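Bit of a strange request maybe. I'm writing a small parser for structure token strings and I need a real example to test against, not something I typed by hand. Could someone generate the tokens for this chain?
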Amino acid sequence: MRLFAAVLPPAGPLAELGAAVDALHALPGAEALRWTSRPGWHFTLAFMGEVEDALLPELRTRLARAAHRTPPFGLRLHGGGHFGRRALWTGAAGELDALRLLAERADAAARRTGIPMEEHRRYQAHLTIARARGEGAPLTPFVAALEGFEGTRWEVGGLALVRSNLPVGGVPGEGPRYETVEVWPLEGRRDGAG
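Reply from user aminoacidic:
Good idea to test on real output. This should exercise your parser:
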């Protein structure tokens, strides 16, 4: 299974983002972008790639432990950015240190399970909303349009393990479908003892 750990924003903040993204579709160059599927919008914490079924029980145990140690924290969708000419995203604001800590714990859980992970780098919170087709596209106007976007704050209360099902139908522009495997509640205490 292709797996990743994620934070899944609730419906209200996603609807706010959806309204902002709808406005982006009217900008010149929007047709050069492949817009991501709204049901799949998420913040990836740790991408694990293909994981052997035999490793799943230990991975689940370690992710549950990571969630148990982490207190709930507040986030909101915020602004926009891009990675080169390839990906357009919205970011996060709020308790970013807590989000980074959860990402570190999810990455460590996968590594300790024996899953070969990519080179470790500082976590950059982003929710991908579009990818450029072909050679890429100028994304600056889209980032500028998202500059003032501020979503409503919500409390992150869970760590999700998500399966990525790659497209098999050969439909042009079809992206992966995401299936939530399990969600563990964040149960740590805010006083630092969690």
